[in-house]
Amino acid sequence: MTMCSNISGNKPHVIVIGAGGVGVIAALSLFHCNKTEVSLVVRSDYDHVKVHGYKISSCDYGDLEGWKPHHLYKNVEHAIKDDPKRFYQYVLVTTKNIPDGPFQSRVPEIIRPIMENNLTYHIDKKCNILLIQNGIEIESDILTTFNKTTYNYNILSGIQIIGSTKIDKGVINQQGHEHLSVGSFDSSDQDSILAAKNFISYYLNEGFNSIEFDERVRYSRWKKLLYNAAINTTTALVGLDVPRALEFGKDKKSTEFGIFRPAMKEIVRIAEAEGIILEDKFIDFFVNCTRDLLFKPSMCVDVQKHQLMEIEVILGNPIKLAKKYGVETPVLEMLYNLLILVQCKLKEEKGLIVFDEKISRLIDH
């Protein structure tokens, strides 16, 4: 099936930043709903997709050949230069959140051209930044960088459950049905809550995808961390899919009872310290939900692709909160310290850090 664009000048504009398996399906869902004009920042695959479009195999939308959203851009600067007076009512960020990565790839710097352009042309309009990303405390960098009164924006949380992967240049394979929850990081901000609910009306395709309003954003993010902080991290360290990580453990038990469950219990205790109760049933659920799937979580895939991992938002931030609350986290800290070594190995490969072998020391830039 081939889908072509259908632009209406009266529709609100949405820009999706990040064209991996998550971002492309998000753009497709918006496009299919046909209530917004959709721009997609493609970056590395831009030249290919501009000519050929996307080849998508989707359990929700079927097989698509040559699909494109209304607008394609190589980066955010390209989008602003193309039409400086276009106002993006929603800015969806679906890139990896790596605050310890290169400065220009950090989320505040990625969206900065839009925020600065709004000051010039759209200061009377409120922009909505929707972070469809992993981790806890991910909104802090944006709130610190951009004063909300000056820049006039809402900041929204998106948690997407989906099995979607970019398997080749311009090729997306979606095997798991999409479920997206959207809410306001600030549960008392009525304007942000309304913006989240409006977005749901732009995104929902009955019979295709699933989207719901999340009134407990902090709870949802802690809950998802149960899986990411324990299982995502461990598989990245050992380079195994989840079933192998479980089965290869001593007596088929040591991975589950020596790593996964203890790490999850530490997340439960950190969340509890700030008044959020995660029921024990979620530990059982997350330990078992991918036990029978030959599935490699995102951090494991990142390492195998020699890409930086989201270790700060998944482990670093929870550990900082644990220290603040006086919660002991020996398992999480061991995983974190080991992953820092792997992250630095990746950074050295990319030339982001330099190790001087003559003196056997890391050189500070």
TrEMBL record:
Q: Which UniProt keywords apply?
A: Membrane, NADP, Oxidoreductase, Transmembrane, Transmembrane helix
The residue ranges of the Ketopantoate reductase C-terminal domain are: 217-341
Name the Gene3D superfamilies on file. N-(1-d-carboxylethyl)-l-norvaline Dehydrogenase, domain 2, NAD(P)-binding Rossmann-like Domain
What's the superkingdom here? Eukaryota
Can the keyword Glycosyltransferase be found in this entry's annotation?
A: no
Under the cellular component aspect of Gene Ontology, which terms does the record hold? cytoplasm
The UniProt record lists the Ketopantoate reductase N-terminal domain at 14-186
Q: Which InterPro entries match?
A: 6-PGluconate_DH-like_C_sf (IPR008927), 6PGD_dom2 (IPR013328), ApbA (IPR003710), KPA_reductase (IPR013752), KPR-Related (IPR051402), KPR_N (IPR013332), NAD(P)-bd_dom_sf (IPR036291)
Question: What GO molecular functions are on record for this protein?
Answer: 2-dehydropantoate 2-reductase activity
One GO BP annotation is:
pantothenate biosynthetic process
Transmembrane region(s): 12-31
User: Which family does the record claim for this protein?
Assistant: Belongs to the ketopantoate reductase family.
PANTHER family xref list: 2-DEHYDROPANTOATE 2-REDUCTASE-RELATED, PROBABLE 2-DEHYDROPANTOATE 2-REDUCTASE
Please identify the protein, giving its name as recorded: 2-dehydropantoate 2-reductase
Q: Species name for this entry?
A: Arxiozyma heterogenica
